[in-house]
Each structure stands twice: as structure tokens, then as C-alpha cells.
Amino acid sequence: MKDIIVLGIETSCDETSAAIVKNGREVLSNVINTQIPIHEKFGGVVPEIASRKHIEAISIVVEEALKKANMRLEDIDVICPTYGPGLVGALLVGVRIC
Predict the structure, then answer these.
(1) Which residue in 7, 24, 39, 86 is deepest, having the highest Cβ count within 10 Å?
(2) pTM (2 d.p.)
(3) Alpha carbon distance 80, 83 (integer Å)
(4) Looking at residue 59, which CATH number applies to its domain?
(5) What number is the average pLDDT over the span 89-95?
(6) Owning domain of residue 87
(7) What is the separation of C-alpha 37 from the centre of its chain, rounded to a whole number of angstroms?
């Protein structure tokens, strides 16, 4: 039976994250880019800033997750982004990568 390799994308709020999972059970990599320091000075998450920071970070995070898993994008069978709940602009960044 062929292994199923999934690229999970998380961009619902202020964390940009990508994980590579094999057969739904084995996490091969998990990379998280946090925006906490950026939003702290505002006392909470600013949706427009969060969306822009996801745009800046998404490619870097995905590339790092692939590298840590020793995979190429061609090895990925399924890409699963978070589609809700969350900040609409932030969610669109993750869905757009598909």
C-alpha cells in the first residue's frame, strides 16, 4: 500500500504553520512561524497585519517543512489548509497555496 503524504497548512490567526504527515499518523515535520511579538504592542491580533505576515511567511514555512521531512513538493499527495474558523484574510493565504 502506498504511503499518503499530507502537507497541512495553518493560517487561521497569528501563526503560520506547515506540517508534513505520513499516513495520518507520523509527523515528519512541523514548522511554526509566530507573530506574537508583532501583535503584542497592539494588545491583540490585528487582522490586516496578520494576513500580510502570513503572505510573507507561507513560502518559507512550507519550504522548511519540506526540507525537514526530506521531501519535495512533488512527493505531496494532498494539501490541507485550515479553512475556518479564523480571520478571513489570514485563511485566504493558506487556501491560496493549494
Answers:
(1) 7
(2) 0.93
(3) 9
(4) 3.30.420.40
(5) 95
(6) 5-96
(7) 18
